[in-house]
Structures are given as C-alpha cells and as structure tokens.
Specification:
Layout (H helix, E strand, L loop, with lengths): L1 H19 L4 E13 L2 E4 L4 E3 L1 H6 L5 E8 L3 H9 L4 H26 L7 E4 L12 H8 L1 H8 L2 E2 L5 E2 L3 E8 L24
Antiparallel strand pairs: 1-2, 1-4, 2-3, 4-8, 5-8, 6-7
Helix pairs in contact: 1-4, 3-4
Length: about 200
C-alpha cells in the first residue's frame, strides 16, 4: 500500500507542477453573420468561412464568436523535455494542459452566453476534415494577427499551426442541437467527449 500511495503522491506532485507552468490567456470577438451562400458563411465585415459543416450547424444563428485560448509555452516545453526521459510524467503534464484549455474555453463560453439553456456549439479549423486547417488564416485575419500576438502571445506559422502548440481556436455559436466535433470524428482518442455518430 505504501508503494501505491507513493505513486499517487508522485502523480499529485506532477499535476501541481503542471498548474504552476500554466499561463492561461484567451480572447474572443463576437461578429454578426451577414448571409450564407453555398458553403460560405459570410460575416458582417465581408470575410467568410468556407465549410459545409459550419453552414449546416449555424444556419439559424445570426452571430458567432471567434476565439483563441492558450496556456502559454512553458508547459509544452516541459512536456517536450521529459518526452525521452520520463514518458509517464510527460503524459500527465500534457493531460493537465488539455484539461486547462477546456476549462478556459468553458469560462469564455459562459462569458459569451451566460444562459446555460442556450445551446452553444464550437468548431475548430483542422479538427475534422469538414473544416480545413487553412481557415485558421481567416480567423486570425479577423482578430488581427499582431493584436493576437501582443494580447495573448499566439502566432500562426506558415503551415497554419498555432504557436504555442497548446492553443485552441475556432468559432462558437448557437445551434439547434448541441454539437461536438467528436460526433463526426472516427479517431481513437483518450479525450473523446461523445460517441462517434458518423
């Protein structure tokens, strides 16, 4: 039993270490939807997202909010350092980062729509094949790349990958039914929130 308690203490210490490495930051911007044309969701400022999924799920919404959430670079750097020497600790720290990102998103979601009775679904470029990763550029252009980097320290590289890597972005809006991208994703994933529906 002492050996088991020791291992549990080590896990608790690792989780505590992970929380100390977090530097949570977020920003979001509501914007009106002007119209829908084919697979394009056209916004009030003239920019548009191209995705049949967005068009289908947000067809009744008159507004969406573009968001970016990050925990900063420190935790991911530690995860990378430990990857070749302590895989278990590296994995636990990575899980702390993933959990933190979800909690930060939940915070801005409640700030955007405080009423829990309103169904708000989120969508992220590149999370599934239904919204191409290249659309990250549109998202960043709307928020302003320089403004994003100055406010929360996130930038987009030439491959549309966000840096720091422990960052999520996307849009959220009111939908007729609650939607999770896991519903249309076949990948095996320890972070799955709902069953695959096809």
């Amino acid at each position: 039993m002492e050996r088991i308690k020791g291992k549990l203490d080590n896990i608790a210490d690792t989780i505590s270490e992970g929380y100390k490495l977090l530097d949570p930051k977020a920003m979001y911007k509501p914007i009106k939807i002007y119209e829908i044309k084919g697979s394009r969701l056209i916004l009030d400022d003239g920019t548009f997202f191209e995705s049949n999924l967005l068009v289908e799920k947000l067809k009744c919404a008159n507004e969406l909010a573009i968001y970016i959430v990050t925990i900063g670079p420190a935790l991911e750097q530690k995860v990378a350092e430990l990857g070749s020497v302590d895989l278990a600790k590296s994995f636990i720290l990575d899980c702390v980062g993933t959990y933190a990102l979800r909690q930060i998103f939940n915070f801005i979601r409640k700030d955007y729509r405080p009423n829990d009775l309103i169904r708000v679904s989120k969508f992220s470029p590149g999370s599934t094949s239904h919204w191409d990763m290249s659309q990250q550029r549109v998202l960043f252009d709307i928020l302003g790349p320089e403004k994003v980097e100055k406010a929360i320290g996130v930038r987009l590289n030439e491959y549309c990958v966000m840096i720091p890597r422990k960052t999520v972005s996307g849009v959220m809006g009111e939908t007729e039914e609650q939607f999770q991208e896991c519903q249309i994703c076949e990948r095996r994933c320890e972070f799955r929130r709902v069953p695959f529906k096809g």
